[in-house]
Write a structure and sequence with these properties.
Two copies of one chain form a homodimer. Chain A is an alpha+beta fold and 157 residues long. Chain A has six helices and six strands. Chain A folds into two domains: 87 residues, Winged helix-like DNA-binding domain superfamily/Winged helix DNA-binding domain (Arc Repressor Mutant, subunit A, Orthogonal Bundle), CATH 1.10.10.10; 51 residues, Ferric-uptake regulator, C-terminal dimerisarion domain (Dna Ligase, domain 1), CATH 3.30.1490.190. Chain A is globular. The first copy, chain A, binds a DNA duplex (25 and 25 nucleotides) through helix 2 and helix 4.
Chain lengths: 157, 157
DNA sequence: GTGGGTGCAAAGTGTTTGCAAGTGT
DNA sequence: ACACTTGCAAACACTTTGCACCCAC
């Protein structure tokens, strides 16, 4: 889904590179092809593995050097999950304001958009004298299905 | 403010230790005295410095070994601000559900509680098949005052 | 041709841990 | 006494960086 959006995100990033006089090398190609062909959250190491499948010559250093460019361009967002690794979320081009529910039972991460919630956050910010720019909401929760049925539909992931 | 609450938090933690057959050493004393005498967010290194003012014998290792106990007991919460260090928030005993506004202009962190927001988050979770357990909301924002007056009341911190 | 880009390996840095000695109960 | 604790320093693990060579423009 949203394949066209992913494609346009790729083009946006290439524009971003041009605007900064940065070059589109084959390694960067492989990395951004990877980033914009998944909706999963991933770590730097996973991105390295996946990118190497497309281009063996991609190195860890280049991945680490490209990630800041991707976040700076706003097409990728860092996610701190309290784990050792930093995770990256490629879904901000489609849904810039989405939030996350993290299942304590199976570690699955579910995304959602909610306009009313967003509006309320903006109102609260205003009331406190600020203008909301970005927002990160992580809800940690348990799975209702697991409690009722003894099994979680996500458990097998 | 809420000095009594801070005091009771300290007692709660001592109970927590007893319940796990863990000892109240002088080093742990110094550390929890420090934690429960501030409302500031702090890093492990800051906690070490402050604790050493009370008890020179506190070591970095003990701080790092005590922090997980404090978070496990629910009296302290880890905060990932995307910076290099992990920050800790000692205000969860008083306000277990509070959220943060982080000012992009001065890096100041403001806390707030909002019952309606909390309720909405619970509703959303339910709708998606989950039961909300904990929640972390970070709003990144700019200071209105700075824009209007050219100065931010927090700027000098 | 030139300035940015790359891989490699070494360095950096917050955090964790093994160990021998210390201490609360 | 016994088990839990501690400080120290070494070990870890993710990330960053210096350098010499390379390549996109």
């Amino acid at each position: 889904m949203a394949v066209a959006d992913k494609e346009s995100a790729k083009l946006k990033f290439i524009d971003f590179l041009e605007g900064k006089n940065l070059r589109l090398t084959s390694q960067r190609q492989a990395i951004i092809d990877t980033v914009f062909s998944t909706e999963e959250h991933f770590t730097a190491e996973q991105l390295l593995d996946w990118s190497r499948e497309k281009d063996q010559s991609v190195s860890r250093a280049t991945v680490y050097r490209t990630l800041p460019l991707l976040t700076e361009s706003g097409l990728l967002q860092q996610m701190d999950l309290g784990k050792d690794y930093t995770y990256y979320d490629p879904n901000y081009c489609d849904h810039p304001h989405h939030s996350h529910i993290i299942c304590q039972d199976c570690d699955k991460i579910v995304e959602f958009d909610d306009e009313k919630l967003e509006k309320m956050e903006e109102e609260i910010s205003q009331k406190m004298g600020f203008s909301l720019k970005t927002q990160k909401l992580q809800i940690s929760a348990t799975c209702d299905q697991l409690k009722k049925l003894g099994a979680c539909k996500n458990k097998d992931c």
